[in-house]
Design a protein that fits this description.
The complex is a heterodimer. Chain A is of the alpha+beta class. Chain A is about 20% helix and about 50% strand. Chain A has an 8-stranded antiparallel beta barrel. Chain B has helices at about 40-50, 100-105, 130-135, 155-170, 185-195, 215-230, 235-240, 255-265, 275-280, and strands spanning about 1-5, 15, 25, 55-60, 65-70, 75, 80, 90, 105, 140-145, 175-180, 205, 245-250, 265-270, 290. Classes of the chains: A alpha+beta, B alpha/beta.
């Protein structure tokens, strides 16, 4: 993952701002577990940690997302009428922890998405991929006008 | 199944099935909503009212006697001298013999602003021996012994293990019980003592550790970020300590991590839930116990 990103950084061409996801498809745990928990403190803190700035790369369709709770590398392929299908890997500080796939649609500067996050509990503190959760995800972002 | 209707689009994602467990209710500090925390009055009242589990804290005196107290010290927040005069500077229990602790100080006679409806009763500290004798009359009441080892302020885990477990062993209780601590080495000391004596010790790691006088908000935020970034691991920490469970504050409860903890064979306790809404919400989570100051019903 580190090697890939380093390669992209040196590949030439711009790395630019694409959007900021107020609701990020990865890791998808905020909506699935926290939003309805009644724990207002955790709801707020965990919401902030999943807000994700997303960056374009020199490779068309390939983006890098960088929230506190997940860093992702996602490729989106346009389908029809503004609809795209994307998939990629999600990490915890560059340690691969899961995958994400979603359909997305840009309506002007607003991007909405829906899909699936498959997430393990793996982290640098516990590099074990024994436990997995599959979660429906919803994404809501604001970015470059399309 | 209860679903949180946040937004129409997200309502399905926010649904969580009820866990199907029925968490035990533990009376925190003996039931601080009933009577002074960690007091004889609270603990005996909770036992007589038939609470499922009574949780209480233990500290050692200078002569190695376990007494029921939350902090390694006595101070004006909860205690006074026998003549009613204030204590002034903290008096550490490790500097007091049992005779001094019971003879020179009374605790519980100062109204607790956190529990305005609790009884106010000034009385000497309760010893573990006295508590175990009371528990013998209520064998269905579980006991949660929260061991308060603080480096530099108390004896070490081995001393606590010897003092506490020898008494529990001698009491030959029918009551189910387990111990907890916020230091791995204390868990290991208790597990080791038990293994040496052929005594089963069930333990729970209190996580994260909140050192005395620390900012609980700062520790909680630091923990939240550390876990989110994958730099802290609650399950691994409990497993390395050799604990059978983990007790965490409800504010840091994360359903996914709790599910993973239980899948790893750990029991999970949440503390301290003091409203009916919180108890109702978290009673549907996959946890083994909810620790509350109001074991018979929160406001």
């Amino acid at each position: 993952m580190i090697a890939l990103l380093t390669t992209l950084a040196f590949a030439g061409g711009p790395i630019g701002f694409d959007r900021i996801d107020l609701l990020a498809e990865d890791p998808g745990t905020w909506l699935a577990y926290d939003a309805g928990s009644g724990n207002t403190t955790a709801i707020g803190v965990r919401f902030i940690t999943q807000v994700k700035p997303v960056w374009t790369t020199p490779v068309d369709g390939l983006t890098v997302g960088t929230s506190l709770s997940s860093q992702s590398l996602v490729y989106e392929h346009p389908l029809v009428g503004g609809l795209s299908l994307g998939g990629g890997v999600q990490t915890r500080l560059m340690l691969p922890a899961g995958a994400v796939a979603s359909f997305s649609y840009w309506a002007g500067p607003v991007r909405v998405a829906g899909g699936l996050s498959v997430l393990s509990s793996a982290s640098w503190a516990n590099p074990s991929w024994a436990s997995w959760h599959a979660l429906p995800t919803v994404g809501l972002g604001v970015g470059r006008r399309r | 199944m209860r679903c949180a209707l946040i937004l129409t689009l997200t309502s399905l994602a926010a649904c969580q099935p009820d866990a199907g467990l029925s968490p035990a209710m533990e009376a925190h500090r003996g039931g601080a909503g009933l009577a002074p925390q960690n007091s004889r009055s609270a603990i005996v009242a909770s036992m007589e009212l038939g609470v499922e589990v009574v949780e209480f804290d233990l500290v050692l005196t200078s002569d190695g006697i376990p007494v029921v107290a939350h902090d390694p010290w006595l101070d004006d927040a909860h205690c006074a001298r026998q003549d009613g005069s204030p204590i002034g500077d903290r008096v550490y229990l490790q500097d007091l013999s049992l005779q001094q602790a019971l003879g020179d100080y009374l605790c519980g006679g100062i109204p607790d602003p956190d529990f305005p409806d609790a009884a106010v009763v000034a009385e000497p500290l309760m010893t573990l021996d006295e508590l175990l004798a009371a528990a013998a009359g209520h064998p269905d009441v579980g006991l949660h012994l929260d061991v308060k080892v603080e480096p530099g302020m108390t004896a070490d885990g081995d001393a606590f293990a010897e003092a506490i477990l020898s008494r529990v062993q001698q009491a030959s209780l029918e009551n189910p019980w387990y111990m907890s601590a916020n230091l791995s080495e204390v868990i290991q000391a208790f597990e080791g003592w038990g293994e040496g004596e052929g005594m089963e010790v069930r333990s729970s790691l209190i996580w994260p550790r909140f050192p005395p006088d620390s900012s609980s908000t700062a520790v909680a935020l630091q923990t939240e970020l550390g876990v989110g970034l994958g730099l802290l691991d609650m399950i691994g920490h409990a497993e390395r300590a050799g604990a059978d469970g983990v007790a965490l504050p409800w504010q840091l409860a994360d359903r996914r991590r709790i599910v993973d903890a239980r899948a790893a064979g750990l029991q999970v306790q949440l503390w301290t839930l003091n409203t009916s809404d919180l108890l109702d919400t978290y009673s549907r989570w996959p946890v083994d116990a909810l620790i509350t100051d109001y074991p018979l019903g929160a406001p």
